[in-house]
Specification:
Layout: H1 4-10, H2 13-16, H3 21-39, E1 44-45, H4 47-54, H5 58-66, E2 78-79, H6 80-90, E3 97-102, H7 106-112, H8 115-119, E4 122-129, E5 144-146, H9 150-157, E6 161-164, H10 168-180, E7 185-188, E8 201-204, H11 207-220
Parallel strand pairs: 3-4, 3-6, 4-5, 6-7, 7-8
Antiparallel strand pairs: 1-2
Helix pairs in contact: 3-6, 4-5
């Protein structure tokens, strides 16, 4: 079987762009499932079992993985240790990534204390805010700077990931500042529609919207 890491690294950017967005979004579910199985001290698992645990069709699982190489052995299933390593490599999780946090309010503080980021290799190195009362007061061991310092500070950090935890009316300004500072990937928690130029990846997490969807299921479930 060819080395999956080498195969992935050799993919041209145009080839990678052919991977469907839904496939990319399912990779995290596969990885979490594999990690759960490994926590149970399992060594192998079939595509049927991973499918059952993730709620994703086994044929879809095999098709998704086929974009990145050959995985598993017919009749034996997947070597979970190898699959975890390969999925982590595909998703860029085999290296640490520094993260900038915009917004040092309640949500920003909650995000900064979430240990799940660090366990997955994402390290919040600095926070930024416009509120003079918050600037200069660390969140735990994370320094808080004025938003106007973002580009200068990131010239030192070199972070490419940003978290936006500000009110909706300040979200576009925060995202623009991150992009100007060299950040390429942004997770936005503000309930606002944000515009970014090509080459910038932004994911929106609207907590209010998710609560409204839950309400729908409560009403009609």
């Amino acid at each position: 079987m060819p080395d999956t890491d080498s195969l992935l690294d050799s993919l041209a950017s145009d080839a990678f762009k052919k991977v469907p967005q839904p496939t990319i979004e399912r990779l995290s579910a596969y990885l979490q499932c594999v990690r759960g199985l490994r926590d149970e001290e399992r060594a192998t698992a079939s595509s049927a079992e991973i499918a059952r645990r993730t709620g994703i069709n086994a044929a879809q699982l095999r098709k998704d993985l086929s974009y990145f190489g050959e995985f598993g052995t017919p009749g034996l299933g997947y070597d979970l240790r190898a699959l975890e390593r390969q999925l982590a490599h595909i998703m860029g999780l085999d290296e640490e990534r520094d993260v900038l946090l915009i917004g040092a309010g309640n949500l920003g503080r909650a995000l900064s204390s979430y240990t799940g980021f660090a366990r997955r290799g994402f390290r919040i190195v600095a926070a930024f805010d416009l509120d003079a009362e918050k600037v200069g007061t660390p969140i735990g061991n994370i320094p808080v700077f004025h938003l106007q310092e973002l580009s200068r500070r990131n010239a030192e950090f070199g972070a490419q990931v940003g978290l936006v935890a500000v009110p909706s009316n300040a979200a576009q300004e925060a995202v623009d500042a991150l992009v100007a500072a060299g950040v390429k990937a942004i997770l936005n928690f503000a309930p606002a529609t944000i515009g970014v130029r090509p080459g910038i990846t932004i994911r929106n997490v609207d907590l209010t919207s998710q609560m409204e969807i839950l309400s729908f299921y409560l009403r009609h479930g």
